[in-house]
Amino acid sequence: MLSSTPRAVHPGAWWLWAIGLAVAVSQTTNPLVLLLAAAAVTFVVMARRSDSPWARAFTLYAVLGGFIIALRLVLHVLVGLKWGEIVLLPLPEIDLPSWAAGINLLGDLRLEGLLAALFEGMRLAAMILCVGAANALADPKRLLAALPGALQEIGTAIVVAISVAPQLAESARRVHRARLLRGDGARGLRALTRVAMPVLEDTLERSMALAASMDSRGYGRRGETSAARHHTTGALTLGGLLGMAVGSYGVLDTTSPEWVGLPMLLLGVLLGALGLASGSGAVTRTTYRPSPWRSPETVTAVCGVFAAAAAFASAHWEPSALTMPLTPLGPPPLPWLLTLGLLVATLPALLTPAPPVARERDCVQRPTATTEGSHP
């Protein structure tokens, strides 16, 4: 199953793996599980990321997660609901006008409320770390090429959006290297004003180059489509979206009729697939060296789905282990099913091929035949 030849894993497999982990993390506020999930994600990223620009953005997502945790704690101290019995820091409470009733500004800081805010921030940070792992492991350009033709426009917008952080990381690295070569070793806030404008300018230039290259390859262009096929595609897509929305509500609401749940969800998925197939037929495009889907991709996607399934199983069989006991305080329990799911989620680090060496390091700019061959 493990291939010895270095190659890039299909980006869709990495996104399915990351989405499964994000779903699993969203079901718990247990700090042990959240730390284990962050460790599993980091382990896989460090083992299978390349040295491409988007792979270096994982550090930015980790920093963003830490910032979210700190911001969540600060907001709890300022306007959060103070509850609990153990007072950590007595603070004065500021009365607000009547239109802001229900909001407490400052007040006694209590341990239980502070821990609850911390664990909520950790959950959101872990979910963001999962998204950062997908960005670090999946090539956004190959992901765009793998999308169905009907999702070409929205896929382009999504790829541009998720590639902002990698582009900023690469631009910051290039500008920092240029400053060091010029002997400018300023750090901290003093260097921010010197770095911000060059980074934004470089990012804008790279985005314009990407847009120009995509336009030259025919992205956003459609062939001739009959009005009947256009209306059929729209009706199938709209019916699929409505079916999936109603079916999802029926699955979540246990009091709804049986036909509103899973049957309506499956019908919506079927109509949506037919709409995608009909819309993709109207887009004529070719893909150079399409990304293969082999056994490592299947293993990666299954590991992510297994983690999500383990989280839902834990919510059914051991719900008390998914939360941290705050009243009274005690050691957090360890949900064995979810822990097993997170351990299985680390298998792609061992069962997927190693990433190829980045071509940017191997390629050397050589003179072309038109520039060098024209001179004797």
Automatic annotation (TrEMBL):
This is Energy-coupling factor transporter transmembrane protein EcfT. PANTHER family: COBALT TRANSPORT PROTEIN, PROTEIN ABCI12, CHLOROPLASTIC. InterPro entries: ABC/ECF_trnsptr_transmembrane (IPR003339). It is a multi-pass membrane protein. Its main location: membrane. The lineage of its organism: Bacteria, Bacillati, Actinomycetota, Actinomycetes, Micrococcales. Pfam families: CbiQ. It comes from Janibacter limosus. Keywords: Membrane, Transmembrane, Transmembrane helix. GO terms for cellular component: plasma membrane. The chain crosses the membrane at residues 14-46, 58-79, 114-138, 231-252, 264-284, 296-314, 334-351. It is found in: Membrane.
